[in-house]
Amino acid sequence: MRKAAAKYYLMHNRSTSQSVALQRYGQSQDASDLDELDNLLDDSESRDSSKKHATGTRKRPFLWRQYFRRSEHCLQPRNIVLGNGNKQSLSYPSNAISNAKYNAFNFIPLVLFEQFKFFFNLYFLLVALSQIIPSLRIGFLSTYIAPLAFVLLVTMLQEAADDLTRRKRDSDANAEHYDVVGRAVMTKAKDIKVGDLIKVHKDRRIPADLVLLRTEEDDGEAFIRTDQLDGETDWKLKTACSYTQNLVNETDLLGQDGFVIADPPAKSMHEFTGTINIKARNTLTFPLSADNVLWGNTVLASGTTIIGLVVYTGVDTRQSLNTSAARAKAGLLEQEINNLSKILCGLTLLLSVALVSFHGFSQTWYIDVTRFLILFSTIIPISLRVNLDLGKNVYAHQIEHDIDIPETIVRTSTIPEELGRIEYLLSDKTGTLTKNDMELKKLHVGTVSFTREAMSEVSEYVHAVTSKSNNAPRTKREISGRVRDLVMALAVCHNVTPTADLDDEESHSYQAASPDELAIVKWTERVGLALIARDRKTMKLKRSDHETNTLEILSIFPFTSETKRMGILVRDDAGVITFYEKGADVVMAGIVAANDWLEEECGNMAREGLRTLVIGKKVLSKIAYERFQKEYESASVSMTGRERLMADVVAQHLEHNLELLGLTGVEDKLQDSVKPALEFLRNAGIKIWMLTGDKVETAKCIAISAKLVKRGQYIHTVTKLVDDRIAMAELEFLQNKTESALVIDGESLQYYLDKFQQPFVELTTQLPTVICCRCTPTQKADVARLIRAHTKRRVACIGDGGNDVSMIQAADIGVGIVGKEGKQASLAADFSVPEFRYLMKLLVWHGRNSYKRSAKLAQFVIHRGLIISICQIVFSVTSKFAPIALFQGWLMVGYATLYTMMPVFSLALDKDLDDSLALLYPELYKELTEGKSLSYKTFFGWVAISVYQGIAIMFVTLILHNDHDSKMVAISFTALIINELIMVALEVNTWVPLMIYAQVATILLYIATVPFLGDYFDLAYMKTAGFYWRTAIVTAISVGPTWAVKSIRRRLRPPDYAKLAGTA
Q: In CATH, what number is assigned to the domain containing residue 1006?
């Protein structure tokens, strides 16, 4: 049997000489395993290699040859012996889960690399290392080492804790025990191998990718939950291979002489191609598809026990292949601060060189320059990143605990300030602007339409199927027949499964992947044709008269985003074989018979904002069905191009000249408050794009009803572009109408992206609203990247489905909605919200606070470091340019920590106006996008304040006490601390208790520690009145003018928010 597997594999994938070797081996009847075959393959490969060698290609050494051979087999179809992982001829990855980021050897190097790639930390590392050199040492070594070590220690502890959590989670998963058929003891998940037969019980995690062979249910069906894999909440139906399902027991299964041929590992969770091959008198081959596979990390949901064959383990599983590190998102504020820090570094170097030049260059001038650089190192404060990171944690906590936006989750806590800088919002439609709560609103059967009020007539027509009366007029009988045919098609053509209530056998609910299908099946139940039971072979429908129809399911052709249609072949009790198909009008128009009303009615429904489906049927003769089935089965076992071959057979035999039964219109209701939310965001200066896979007319109608397009606003539509001249003419037309809304389909969008990308994005980014229809997930992500790259502005994307994940990850801010399509978008996003309307407060309130607080905090921390450096400069100048430290040892450490940290960090709790005003005046958000809170203007303003206050503190101190001693240090340092506390108080807009506590606690802490600072202060002098009045004068001269300028400016030119808040 293993020989047969290898024969199939090599005949399709190896060279001619290898195939010849295989054929020679296949004729031999004596070999018992693959050893001889391996030798033959080695010989054939040697001949191939010799040929290459003769033409100048160097033959690889044996070990390298084995290495590359193993790499190659991972990229080719694999043949797996049934029943024992130890029988496999090739080795496969371990099934052990490892999400750990570090190990014992690389933890410290990796953490240090991650930290020192930031300019702040690298700068201070160089400063700290310089203190090892005796000639550069200034003060105590701990003064420079301790702050850096503290920051690194906190980071290492946090990284270690996170990694230990990951390891604990991995260890728990790896230690789960599973029953491997044929083994006496339970096997840990990490020890499971390719080829093992695994028994899994209800509510257990699937440990690897399995081919489903048997279930306890007679029909061979099992349901799995995939929410941990793809975020989708609905149950997925999986079916066992018919041959293995019909075996007597698991022992019989273990005794099978067979093998499975499977695709190479791939990312797609919706595609799988394989076969089960059983060696008998004639080798039996059974096709395998994605419907027969249970992906790892899913959960068995149905109440049954299953047996599966392991085909992929560890890094080869779909879950592992689809797990990738998200793009590391860095906030614009961090980039701005990094640029400012480089400016400060340049200023520090210039100051150092200037001071040395004033003193005169000596032979060791470079040592003096370096010592000055070290003295002025506080200009770039090491605590800046710590303060900002802690502040972001505060903002994230406030967002998650805001009672007005419950269930909001911050998944990326490093970029909350980006919420205050958004200028473009790209939104999905279904499930994001709408509820994804579908309801069938309209039915059209060619000459008659049925809407809400007329649905009762549909029930009468369905009920009339059992009526013996034929007295109705002919026209009515024809309509009745068409309606019944359409309702039957809708009740049959779907992938919905009924689930019975354990407490009440008469009641049931439905499991469905598509909200559209669920809405339609519920509607057919209301009009008198209910789905009551379904397995993979049969379907039972109950009519309103309690009679049941049993249909045999012959084949199902599932919906895909590529085909945009779904079909089913069934046989009824009378033996009539019928093919039903439903799908989008763009594809069904070429499949159904010619008609004169489909296009017009589809347009009418789309203009009403309804999602349309076209339904058709075709009755097959027995001979036609058998011919189709034979070709379809042949295509289904092909290992190359299976999907294409199967689709070709369906198109040839089924998908042509279908009888057009009718058209359905399903309404997707708008989310609560989505209209005022969109208008609010537009007033905030945010340009909104809607990216949807829906039709142009439907999307346009939803945009109008949702007020995405303003009343009276011109809507320009561009569709089906195929000509360069027309494409440019459309752009030229829009250049004169930049206040209009653009509606463009996916085909035209791709045309512009491929041929006229630059002029297209330049024009569309000026428009207030753009609606892109028939978009693919890739196009959504491309649009987000294009806007970011062209405008250099912040882009937010919001969506609710798996098709929105790429767009969300491509944005500066990704927002996911937990919807009916699952949690995939929510899990991939930076922020998760339950409803679209929560964006209002998330952006204009929390975004405002996060950005303005971070900007103020960053500039104040820079001010705190710059002012003490200015003091040092003045001291150096008055000390004949000697590079001697003014504040040494604990004074430097305490200044940046105990004596100023709490008041400065309390600025992270400040707010410039109430949330009610921010939500009442969304126009205030526009000033945030301009970046005025942290700009070169504000930065150099703080530099000027720092320079003035640093000079004032030192010069006034030296005037009042003209001596460089500990008394001067005590006056200047105390004045410096009080100056910073007063400056914090002047910056506060709204006082909260914690701010007051921080101020009081800092003052008390300073007073309490003064007795321990005898090495730096003259403690006896600090008890005299002279110390206090001198300190008071120094502080008043330092703070007074600053306070006066700030007050006058606020009164003469108050900011807009101050006018509204009444604090001007």
A: 1.20.1110.10
